[in-house]
Specification:
single chain, 10% strand, two-stranded parallel sheet
Amino acid sequence: MDRSVFQGIYSQQKAYFNHQMTKSYEQRVEVLKDLRAQILKYESRIIQTMQADMAKPETEATGREIWYVLEEIGYTLRQLKSWMKPQRKRTPLLHFRASSAIYPEPYGQVLIMAPWNYPFHLLFSPLVGALAAGNTAILKLSELAGYRPALPAL
């Protein structure tokens, strides 16, 4: 791909993040649920691609790649509200009468690169964490494996 295409994607994501769209709990839940729905919708296509590109059996593609990501999305959805709450911390005596807390905030943009051996699991598992934290992400597949363009909608 041309460098300008990547710069365009980067700029769009930066603008989206700067509009504070990713900070709300509701938006993060919506994005994670949409990701789960897309994975389930294209599950057979994902499996076919892994079989064609890496000769992975269907059980391995489902059990070691897709299932892990779906379970991680479920766990993240259950825990997300508590992860987003401010954490009260002990205030040093020097600052008597003050209170201290840590407020979880997203970093912004994340680049996730997948290895060749478990490309789906090791690409989408970090994506779940990045989206749950309120970040945007750019995904890059490994150049060592011969992938087919089978997942354009994800």
